[in-house]
Amino acid sequence: MSELQTIKCYLTQLPATILKLLDIDPPHGKIPEPIQQVLDLYQGIERISINLIDNFGLFEITYLKPQFMIREAEVMLLLSTKNPYTLGVLHQLMYGSFDVEPNGFHLLKAINAAGKQSCLIGRKRDIERYDGGTKSIQKDSDMSTWVQSSQVINTNHLSWMHYLDFENLHKQQQQLRRRTPEDLIEKLLNRTDKWILGNYRQLRNNSLMIIIGDHGRSKLNMEYSGKIAQWREASVPIAIFIKK
Questions:
Q1: What predicted TM-score, i.e. pTM, was given to this entire model?
Q2: What InterPro entries does this protein's entry cite (predicted)?
């Protein structure tokens, strides 16, 4: 990651950035302006593949070092937000703010209104809350989300996969008193890193992969100590950009 370009920005700037990358003009004055440094770096993008990963952020990428992301990342955004958790991040990505459809804006609807195709893959409750009636596919596990992803990443201008197995697995393992949340996060991150590598290999040229990390559905009590605990506490959501 020595040559990785790091940019500090607001999470709510991502919707306009995604639209501009797809050659769609964002609604002026309705959502925050796009991140110009990103637009300057990526031209001629034909499709975007978003992978949203729960319980993943600046701490996890620097401490756990998922191989594919570390090796291929070109740009990393440090995303400033008042709400870094799953629903807060989903809301800000879809609406460009904390308001519900401010001035009628919805990211996926805006993409479809411009004549481009989108597809959101995730859990039923999140899709029902956030897809806005656009094309979506409900899956009940990360494995089934990943299997489905291969059918949509090259056939849509924007494909969006949400990986959140941690939530249910952590509840199960708490009851069984087996695995710590730290161990589970590491295991799932390494697994998802390999899956995303598979997607990257499948993607056609002129594609842009964006890997976004949030703090998960709710705050966790971790067993890290000392400086590592301080790093974890200071972690922020991130977005990694990788061009194919």
A1: 0.89
A2: Alkaline_phosphatase_core_sf
